[in-house]
Write a structure and sequence with these properties.
β1, α20 and β2 form a beta-alpha-beta unit. The longest helix has 25 residues. This protein is mainly alpha-helical. The chain has a four-stranded mixed sheet with strand order 7-8-10-9, covered by helices on one side. It has a two-stranded parallel ribbon with strand order 1-2. The chain has 32 helices and ten strands.
Length: about 750
Amino acid sequence: MPRGRGEERAALTREVRDAFARLTRQGLDPNDAAALALKLAAGIAEWPLDVPAFLGAVQRCKDASLRSGEKLSEHLGVSDAIERVFSSADALNSSFIAPSERRERSDGSGEDDGGDDDSLSSEETNPPLDPATRRVRDALKLDFDELLDVYQAVESLGSLFVGILLASFARLLESLGDGPTAWSRAGHSLIRLVLILLECPALIEPAHFDVLGSLLKLAASLPTSAKDALVRCVRACYTRERFTRTLAVVQQFVTVRVFDARRRGGVDASLEHATSFLRVLWRANAAAVRGGAERGADERPYAFVPLADFRVDAVNGEGFDAREDYRRWRRPDLFTFSFCDFPFVYDQVAKARILQLESAMLQAHVFEHYALGSPFDRADACAVSDLACPYLKLDVRRDCLLADTMRQLTYHVRCGDIRKPLRVRFVGEEGVDEGGVQKEFFQLIAPEVFSKRVGFEWDDETNRCWFAKGKQPWAEYELAGVIVGLAVYNGHALDLRLPKVAYKKLMGERIGLADLRDVASWHHNAALCLLRCENEDEVASFGFSFSASYVDAVTGETECVDLLPPCGEETRVTMANRVEYVNRYVEWYLVDSVAAQFDAFRGGFERLCSGRTVRMFRPDELESLVVGAPSLDFRALQANCSYEDGLGVDDALSRWFWDVVHVDLTEHQRRRLLCFATGCDRAPVAGLGSVPLALSVNGSDDARLPTAHTCFNHLMLPRYSCREVLRERLTTAIENAEGFGLQ
């Protein structure tokens, strides 16, 4: 009997050694190979997939020369291999091991393959990897090319084999359990399984969404540390093509579930799981790829695809109830899911609608408070009559617009009633503010505020304004921020020429050398030239030291700043320290030199625009919200135009009007027309197609000029006798119009 046990032990040892040798030849790590060899010898695990043998079997299945019995045998062998490998975590994790040379080529770190010049380089098609991310990729050892070959081979056999594959996925996912359980059992190998299953092209088909839903549920329920690991793995292993494909699969799943939820009248858990996985992809993509100051490269704010590619059309269309989604967001005690927690799925137009909804609700609440509440709470700070008024009333003179506005806003900021619904009146004019007077007010006040009079310097080359350096009166910057916040809060666009970096700073994002270009292009170009120098003599020719100087906008005196205390002025810039110099100079110019000014501006802005809803916007989206759409599409305005008082779309007057707009008017005159009809020469963030312009007839006298009700975007045209009369009277009106109720 002892002899028998010894023989069994020796046989088991040989079996383990043979399995270990075979597994290591397939590329498995020695530790992983040893663990799997023991399981294989004990009969509690399956062998990893032999990919060449499997692909050969698939080819034989399609061989028309085989007899039916032989073909059946091959089919059974393929289906058995699919079921055996893709329902076993051990077998699947031990398959598709990438050779080291293929991993090196995947991020462009290997040798040039000698391809033609027209082909995209690895760095253009795949984001570059830093050393830490490359280590994550190497640890996974996942051969995506081999995996995709297997999936495509299965698909080539038809729907029956695809069904066997998906059924195997389902059994695997069921055996893994929920996220925390699976993570505690499998650890980082679970991430590899998730990536393998996600690569299956068949998952994009709605017929297989039950399996995809189970996979997304597993990923969404992972602990935070596991999700962080998944983000790193996606960032390390995906190419742009692979990332785009995975994103499309998950977005389609979300789209289908949104329509299902609309039909059923409720949100199911699978929608929450899928959107949570979108956040994993967002985090992997949103890690900025920085070209490095050594090359002076601009940073790209995404790794794989533009951030706008994450938008889901189903939640941005008219059929989606954004109001209900916002209500769910405001009541986390009652609802666990809202798309507002995943703002990347919304476009800037949808976000603007949500912000306008919140502003309208807040204004209604404030109006009710002041209309029905007691006005005596803060009578020590403000007049009782002002506190009793439910509106924020600004009475301004056109010839003293800046002074009147600043004085009254200072008063209301001190009273704390700046969030009341706004009403503007131009002194001496008959216009009643139902929206149009406000639009003209903001149109006129923005250039007055963002000028040298308030403390902004203008760069003629970039056509942008920036905060003046020196001992500036901070209160005026705060009121400038209040003006911007007041416009956003009341849904108006401004003719504002702040650079993009201002919006990045408002949103708390990191800045770099590329941001200097829109503020001071000369300084930006000089920094690039410095970074491109090839030797010490070229660097020395700049004569730079770790210091900066500026002219104080208040005193007119030249001030020097030490960028490397305490001896920056004596420290010369060299090849070795030029990157540090550029970084310090950019930080000083865009942050430190205007810190007090910008903090005051941000404080004023946040008096009206703060909180989670504003944080939904990216810097570029916030800029569009503030300044409106970048271009004016008057054909979109025409398509959305309505006709009243007997005027029809096919009437000669209507045709003449739009023909004059599109053919005769210059870009400047079109802006003047827009301002004449709506009170503002800028389009809202949704574009001119969202402006409800109305055209109607007002008499039939050729001597009369067109008139407009800007509060209602209503343009009234006399029924002119011909096109030329209409063109002449329209251009006269738009070039000479100012004020409300003027004779």
